[in-house]
Amino acid sequence: MQILQISDLHLRGDGRLSFRKVDTPACLRVMADYLHALSPSPDAVVITGDLADSGDERAYHILYEALSDLPAPIYAVPGNHDRRDRMRAILRGWVPEESPVPPRVCHCVDMGEVRLVLLDTMEPGSHSGHCPESMARWLDTCLQEDAGRPALVFMHHPPFLTGMGVMDEPFEGAEPLREALARAPLARLCCGHMHRPIFTLWGDRPALTSPSVSMQIDLDLRPEGGDAFRMETPGYLLHHWDGARLNTHVCQIPAAADFSGPHPFADSVNPLED
Question: How far apart are the C-alpha atoms of 51 and 9, rounded to whole Å?
Fold first, then answer.
């Protein structure tokens, strides 16, 4: 079984460059062509947030048109640059119509041998991650329903420190989340937000972040690091369950990359909802 994770598209639908630098619709076209040509196709595609840049409504329509005909089901959670109301209205089938933890976009997908659990750590107007107690309790209940099966837990914000100071903001509700994962020995936490693959243990559970399909954060491990990006090769994660083990592979998307940068995240907005 193959679960493909993409993240941080920052797609704009108004013809402008994201962060005054990145042609994200062009990045989407390259990624979409690549995903359509994959053989074998993944069993599911999960998008871990920042689908649009600043909650751009047209961007969600462009994304849906580009990927909705993939043979694999697609599931998505919002990031801090998204608007969950627009995701629900436009990305039909990618997010649940009803959530066990309203208004957050949360759902559990039974893939047979593997379960996918999707959490919504976005708080409108905030850049950092949030896990209310109600969502942690739901996660715990969901994981304990079948703790003997591998579970991939997807969300946008990593709750662990990465060493890039600007991005290492406080994560609200980290401890209840950690406790829920600690009770699920076969759970793996899969995040976005960092625009770079990072692998660690968090609460004795494997935890990781996905590269971006648009731009990669400049690897700057100073306290002021994490506030700029480079035009490196786009990538994704492929989670492979072979019936006995769960491996995560870092994969690249063949694309022209000039490796320029660092560029600032100019005009960045964490949108509010209507």
Answer: 5
**By the 8 A CB rule, do 210 and 236 touch?**
yes
Query: According to DSSP H, which parts of 24-169 are helical?
Result: 24-37, 57-67, 84-90, 133-144
Lowest-confidence pick of 136-145, 160-169, 185-194, 259-268: 259-268
Residue 179's alpha-carbon distances to 173, 176, 187, 193, in angstroms, are: 11, 5, 12, 22
pTM score: 0.96
Q: What is the b/e burial string over 25-35, where b = at least 16 CB atoms within 10 angstroms of the residue's CB?
A: bebbebbbebb
Pair type for strands 187-191 and 205-209 = parallel
Looking at every residue in the chain, the average pLDDT score rounds to 95
Distances (CA, A) of 71 to 16, 18, 39, 185: 31, 29, 11, 31
Handedness of CA 87, 89, 91, 92 (dihedral sign): positive
Cα–Cα distance measured from residue 209 to residue 205, given in angstroms and rounded to the nearest whole number = 13
All structural domains of the chain:
2-264 (3.60.21.10)
Percentage of residues in the chain having pLDDT higher than 70: 100
Report d(CA 212, CA 195) in Å as an integer: 5
Query: Given a cut of 70, is residue 274 above it in pLDDT?
Result: no
State the Cα–Cα distance between residues 173 and 135, nearest whole angstrom. Answer: 10
